[in-house]
Amino acid sequence: MSTEPPKRVLVAGATGYLGKFSVQAFKERGYSVRVLTRSKERLSEPGPFTAPALAQDDMDEVFVGEITKPETLTGLMDGIDLVFSSVGISRQRDMLTFDQVDYQCNQNLIDLAVAAGVKRFVYVSMQGAENIMQLAITQAHEKVVDALKASGMEYRVVRPCGYFSDMGVLLDMAKKGRAYLVGPGDNKMSPIHGRDLAHVCVDTAEGDALEVEAGGPDTMTQREAVEMAFDVVGKPPKVTVIPMWLARGLVKFIGLLSTQFGDLADFIVTAGEIDGVGPPRGKTSLRSYFEAMNAGDPNP
Ligand SMILES: NC(=O)c1ccc[n+]([C@@H]2O[C@H](COP(=O)([O-])OP(=O)(O)OC[C@H]3O[C@@H](n4cnc5c(N)ncnc54)[C@H](OP(=O)(O)O)[C@@H]3O)[C@@H](O)[C@H]2O)c1
After folding, report:
1. CATH fold for domain 8-163+191-216
2. Domain ranges for the chain
3. For residue 93, what pLDDT is reported?
4. Nearest atom of ligand 1 to the alpha carbon of 137
């Protein structure tokens, strides 16, 4: 039996979809888990899009602080071997930009980790980022990757395809009887369950590969995913296509009103145009997820 103390991981982004599953995955895999949050309450609430509520047993320590204010993070990295960060904007909540959150918050963590002598840092970017570098979100993500490479720490980058969190929206629309697609929906994707991805993140943290792409077990078009959602809820598929020219016009208009919402809309519309397929590292099929959601399973 090993007498070595468990490795100590700091999970940042622990109130988010991937973050909640990652806290559980690191704990299951024997780590001592410290989470960083700006809201203790949000940890124990069910997370966005069927992410689990965390129990006290899932975590060893909770550090409350604001990543945007490094002065609130004194001692955050003490004793930490490994940092895992899935901090980023997927819903606009604070009226901050991708640069301010996805880049600067993670840069703040990198600076603190380097100063504290943390050995390894694992960051979650995106699959196929190199193809959409015109977007503010990808620029921010890749600035973090560059900062990690220059940091002197050991680094790992996880590059996932779309999460099942985004697919849950399709089932909700199918239940209501009509789904909306941005563009014709013939682009291919291989979305991944957050629980599966969290274990890929732990594997990546422990492995030698510097960058790891990850998709779910099935590749399908967006339209096929929508049709699957209708099939699972037992309704005939009714799909309204928002033409790309209209979606692009809306993005421009939103961008004039708000950089923050415009950049998010730009990302959503672009994701409706491009393929997002990665190596099948997830095991949970989208159909089984839809079926579990439809049956009211709280942990689909
Ligand atoms: N969704 C996808 O399909 C997809 C695909 C590939 C890559 N990714 C990337 O994966 C990462 C995680 O995604 P996710 O879906 O897990 O995101 P999420 O559910 O929105 O969680 C984001 C986390 O970041 C934190 N955060 C956001 N703004 C913050 C701020 N101003 N100050 C402090 N903390 C802040 C949130 O904390 P609070 O709860 O306190 O707000 C939350 O813990 C993101 O970087 C995303 O770009 C997503």
Report:
1. Rossmann fold (3.40.50)
2. 8-163+191-216
3. 85
4. 47
